[in-house]
Amino acid sequence: MKIIKPSYEILGSPDGEQMIRNIELCGRVCYKSEDRITDQSAAKFISMIMKSGHESVLEHEKITVRVVCDRGVTHEIVRHRLASYSQESTRYCNYSQDKFGNELTFIKPCYFEEGDERYALWVKAMEEAERNYFALLDAGARPEEARGVLPNALKTELVMTMDIREWRHFFRLRTAGRAHPQMRELACMILAGFKERIPVLFDDITQEDN
Question: Which one, of 119, 124, 47, 133, lies nearest residue 90 by Cα?
Fold first, then answer.
């Protein structure tokens, strides 16, 4: 059994500066102000349209992210309907195979501290799930049958693509203080990464405001 922390990777190496230039060009069609585009005009223009609530323009650009988290978190992520998803399948993945290290991998819950009684109980439950899963496979069950004993804490990988407007909606909901702790943990990580690589588009979304 392996226990890991959640993680993410931005796919495709998006060029943040080019993204905001593309959004500016699309947005200025509405006002027929393309002649006002300069090397420095994109950030100011996009800030203006976001403040005015004209976020439909942001749908012209998208970002794809691969996340590693537990299956419980992905159940919340896929509720965002304006997105595309591809997820690791417990139906087809046989975790007794070498490529999975012949073991199950679980995501460490951020709300339990190692050494705490609750964490010890959680580890014990994961160990039992792993034993039962492999026992079912040994008894001739197919992965799609054995997966019935797998818990929400099982590690999974999910590739998710959203346009900028939907990413903003995702962050407003999922970095809020009322969000599930593990969902918030992952969303805050991704938001910080977006802010490092993409100008303007996410600067107004802060964890402290939620």
Answer: 133
**All domains of the chain, ordered by start, with CATH?**
1-14+62-197 (3.30.1360.170)
Distance from C-alpha of 124 to C-alpha of 117, rounded to nearest angstrom: 11
Q: How far is CA 55 from CA 22, 43, 116, 179, in A?
A: 14, 14, 45, 23
The whole-angstrom separation of Cα 199 and Cα 189 is: 17
SS3 208: helix
Between strands 62-70 and 7-11, the pairing is: antiparallel
Active site residue 197: no
Token pair of 205 as six digits: 């979304």
d(CA 204, CA 51): 10
Give pTM, 2 decimals.
0.93
- Sign of the dihedral defined by the CA atoms of residues 102, 183, 122, 135, in that order: negative
How confident is the model over 45-65, as a mean pLDDT? 95
Q: Which of 174, 178, 184, 197 is catalytic?
A: 174
- pLDDT one-digit tens code per residue, 144-161: 999 999 999 999 999 999
